UniProtKB/TrEMBL annotation:
InterPro entries: Crypto/Photolyase_FAD-like_sf, Crypto/Photolyase_N_sf, Cryptochr/Photolyase_FAD-bd, Cryptochrome/DNA_photolyase_1, DNA_photolyase_1_CS_C, DNA_photolyase_N. One of its GO terms (biological process) is response to stress. Residues 171-238 form the Cryptochrome/DNA photolyase FAD-binding domain. It comes from Escherichia coli. FAD binds at residues 122, 134-138, 171, 174-181. PROSITE patterns: DNA_PHOTOLYASES_1_1. Residues 2-67 form the Photolyase/cryptochrome alpha/beta domain. Pfam families: DNA_photolyase, FAD_binding_7. Binds 1 FAD per subunit. The keyword Transcription regulation does not apply. This is Deoxyribodipyrimidine photo-lyase. Belongs to the DNA photolyase family. Belongs to the DNA photolyase class-1 family. It comes from the Bacteria.
Length: 238
C-alpha cells in the first residue's frame, strides 16, 4: 500500500498492520516524489519556508532520480472475500466525467497531453481563468490515479529543461509545493488537527456570516470573477 501522512491515516495504517500481523505488509512512498525525511536542513530539521525547501529538494533530486514503482504482479492463487457494499450518505451532484478521468490510461493520456502542450506555457496561462491553462490533474493525484513520480518523469521527458528553470519549471514548482505540505504535516502533525502553522493567526477574528457564505457558495456575491468561478465549480465540479 502507499503511505499517507495525515495523523488519522497513519494511525489507521498502524491498526491495519496490527490486525494483519500474520500477513506481510509493505508500504511505499508513492504519493510523494521524495519521502518525508529526505529533505532536511543542515541541522536535520524540517524546512519551514518553501524556497529553501525547494532548492534542497532539487539538489536532492539531482543526486538520484526516484523511479516509479512497478505495478504488482497479478496473483494466480488465493481467495479474497468480496468487500461489503457501502452506502455513502452525502449529497451527490452529477458532473461531466470527462473532466475527471477514472481509468489510469485516460489520466496518463491527459498528463502526456499537458506536458507536451501545456506545461511550457503554464507560467503565463495559469493566471487567466478563461484559458485552459492548468493540468486539471489534481483529482487524479489526490485519489492515487496518478503518481507524482509519473508526473515528474513525463514532465522531464517532454520538457527536460524544467529541472534547470526552463519551460515547465513553474509546474514542477507546483509539484514541489505539494511535496512541501506533505513533509510539513509529517513533522508538524498539529496541522492535521485544524491548528495553524503560524500560532498567532489563530487569534484572528474571522467573520461568521451564513448569508455571505451562501452567497459565495452560489456565486452571488456581486464580484463577477468570483461568481463566475463558483458557478463553474457548481456546474462542472471544477
Amino acid at each position: 500500500y502507499n503511505y499517507q501522512y495525515e495523523v488519522n491515516e497513519r494511525a489507521r495504517d498502524v491498526e491495519v498492520e496490527r490486525a494483519l500481523r500474520n500477513v506481510v505488509c509493505e508500504g511505499f512512498d508513492d504519493s510523494v516524489i521524495l519521502p518525508p525525511g529526505a529533505v532536511m536542513t543542515g541541522n536535520h530539521e524540517m524546512y519551514k519556508v518553501f524556497t529553501p525547501f525547494k532548492n534542497a529538494w532539487l539538489k536532492r533530486l539531482r543526486e538520484g532520480m526516484p523511479e516509479c514503482v512497478a505495478a504488482p504482479k497479478v496473483r494466480s492463487s488465493g481467495s479474497i472475500e468480496p468487500a461489503p457494499s457501502i452506502t455513502l450518505n452525502y449529497p451527490r451532484q452529477s458532473f461531466d466525467t470527462a473532466h475527471f478521468p477514472v481509468e489510469e490510461k485516460a489520466a496518463i493520456a491527459q498528463l502526456r497531453q499537458f506536458c507536451q502542450n501545456g506545461a511550457g506555457e503554464y507560467e503565463q496561462q495559469r493566471d487567466f481563468p478563461a484559458v485552459e491553462g492548468t493540468s486539471r490533474l489534481s483529482a487524479s493525484l489526490a485519489t492515487g490515479g496518478l503518481s507524482p513520480r509519473q508526473c515528474l518523469h513525463r514532465l522531464l521527458a517532454e520538457q527536460p529543461q524544467a529541472l534547470d528553470g526552463g519551460a515547465g519549471s513553474v509546474w514542477l514548482s507546483e509539484l514541489i509545493w505539494r511535496e512541501f505540505y506533505r513533509h510539513l504535516m509529517t513533522y508538524y502533525p498539529s496541522l492535521c488537527k485544524h491548528c495553524p502553522f503560524i500560532a498567532w493567526t489563530d487569534r484572528v477574528q474571522w467573520q461568521s456570516n451564513p448569508a455571505h457564505l451562501q452567497a459565495w457558495q452560489k456565486g452571488k456575491t456581486g464580484y463577477p470573477i468570483v461568481d463566475a468561478a463558483m458557478r463553474q465549480l457548481n456546474s462542472t465540479g471544477w
